[in-house]
């Protein structure tokens, strides 16, 4: 849930500031809202999240703790307490520092030339997360839209990801196939390529490193990473880099150029195979295409279809 968007004005009927005041937080104020619920600043470095969507499980709380305990150079979420009020889950968390690296490309037009500071910020975040070993709690997470823990029945991330692709395509793949030429053959090529990837270190994967989910300090250095949970798991850090390159600029006029440049940059700086990054980008499109809407009326669906149409692993050799 995004906590950075200023949202000082609250509806007159909002009961939550009084709720928090009754519990010793007299200065509670609404500071942001997202698809998962509403965020309130409580003071003393604490925030509260009132959940409207799926609340965090004890498992994700453990994942937060596993990551926070690793001593990264930037802050990550940490749930301090969980309460329930009239059937609504409220989490108390530490307040994360910094401001968003930049706004979402759906609402802010990005320049053609990628800022060096953004490339370096992304690189620092990727290196940091890749230093956190994957834990049992991370392996037990279920990614958004799926019905079972990603690692269930698998010993390798590459095989687990291939199985996820197969399940996701079975959901609404016929609709995607109508927008992507040679779809069935492309899925087969992607599955074969995923299963052929070599073993790799298993580290923490955020899975949704869009610019608003990365906070920076006044010098532009990464100060915090937030909104774990969408595709959070343990896995090959090359998958994280591939997705970060693809989602940095999803909707701007230079999006394709930016994805290509970041993919090359991460491959060079982090030592990942360009082909591995490309197949991971195809896997991301195939596993998230219907999570916000199952047809082309949804912007993310259209973006995933476009990703597949130009992906060199998914497309004909």
UniProtKB/TrEMBL annotation:
One Pfam family of this chain: APH
Question: Do the record's keywords include Kinase?
Answer: yes
Query: Which InterPro entries does the entry mention?
Result: Aminoglycoside_PTrfase, Kinase-like_dom_sf
Q: Which UniProt keywords apply?
A: Kinase, Transferase
Q: Name one GO molecular function term.
A: kinase activity
Is Kinase set as a keyword in this record? yes
Residues annotated as domain Aminoglycoside phosphotransferase: 29-249
- What name does this protein carry? Aminoglycoside phosphotransferase (APT) family kinase protein
Instruction: Please name the taxonomic classification of the source.
Output: Bacteria, Bacillati, Actinomycetota, Actinomycetes, Kitasatosporales
